[in-house]
Design brief:
304 residues, mainly alpha, 65% helix, cell membrane, metalloendopeptidase activity, hydrolase, Peptidase_M48
């Protein structure tokens, strides 16, 4: 899709590299399964089916999980006005616009292509941000759609799904009668497959998290460049992160599964683990990058 969002060759290269590395790991993983098991095809077919459902129905699944509804311009004129202006500036098709009725201040974009794309904001973030700040957030989310990284992240997650399923399958098969047939050799086989699956899951998890962090920085840059106001996006980041601390922990943990797609994570990793395990860069890193973009654009640097 051609848009006025600046092509991000570094993001494209990282997405290609991540998928390539995951593909290598996946080939090695299947080779091990072929050598050790006879039922690996069923596992891959099941996981492939789950991936197909996730890929083709991701927009409906996400909206249903967040209890969001698609709204028209009469229902949300301010929101549609911002999206209309941004899509015109970016020369991209307008996605569907949805609102989730929750106090959690956040936003996300989903959909496998521009025809199925949807950008969703919560009532909590609309209430807390002014128009310029909300425009910065929506420009960030629209860049995810323009760069097709939602689809890439869905495909990249396939290997982790397969590895996780294999681990559970072998664990339960061992618990419910796997050892009765036999043999210490069978038990050793089960343990070996579980170890291989765990290693594969860990590698895919770390690769996907690294890509997720970079794609957020890329979306910050693309969104700030499109609006020409990095300070507004920085202000939105600071405000949303601060307001998140006031949300009950129980509500945050309910939304934690959406962290990889949210504008800011509902529940972040502990500082000692954030580098490897977080879906997003730290707030300070994002603000520092936006300050650099402000300097490039000649705008006053955003304050933290």
């Amino acid at each position: 899709m051609r848009t006025r969002f600046r092509p991000d060759r570094q993001l494209t290269a990282r997405m290609v590299l991540t998928v390539f590395l995951l593909g290598l790991v996946y080939v090695a993983f299947v080779a091990v399964l072929v050598a050790l098991l006879k039922s690996w095809v069923a596992i891959v077919v099941i996981a492939g089916g789950l991936l197909a459902v996730q890929y083709f129905c991701s927009d409906r699944i996400a909206l249903a999980a967040m209890r969001a509804r698609v709204v028209d311009p009469q229902q949300e004129p301010r929101l549609h006005g911002i999206v209309d202006r941004l899509c015109a500036a970016a020369d991209m098709p307008k996605p569907r616009v949805a609102v989730a009725d929750t106090d959690l201040p956040n936003a996300f974009a989903t959909g496998r292509n521009t025809e199925r794309a949807v950008v969703c904001v919560t009532t909590g973030i609309m209430r807390r941000l002014d128009t310029d700040e909300l425009e910065g957030v929506l420009a960030h989310e629209l860049s995810h759609i323009a760069h097709r990284d939602v689809a890439v992240m869905t495909i990249a997650s396939f290997l982790g799904v397969v590895a996780g399923m294999v681990t559970r399958f072998m664990f339960y098969s061992q618990m419910f009668g796997g050892r009765r047939r036999g043999a210490d050799q069978t038990y050793l086989l089960v343990v070996l497959v579980m170890l291989v699956s765990a290693v594969v899951y860990t590698l895919s998890f770390l690769l996907i998290r690294a890509l997720s962090r970079y794609r957020e920085l890329a979306a910050d840059r693309a969104g700030a460049t499109l609006t020409g106001r990095p300070s507004a996006l920085a202000s939105a980041l600071t405000k949303v992160t601060g307001e998140m601390a006031r949300i009950p922990t129980r509500d945050l943990r309910t939304a934690q599964a959406f962290n990889a797609f949210f504008f800011t994570p509902a529940v972040g990793a502990r500082p000692s683990l954030s580098t490897l395990l977080s879906t997003h860069p730290s707030l300070q890193q994002r603000l520092d990058r936006l300050a650099e973009i402000s300097t490039e654009l000649g705008e006053a640097a955003p304050s933290a």
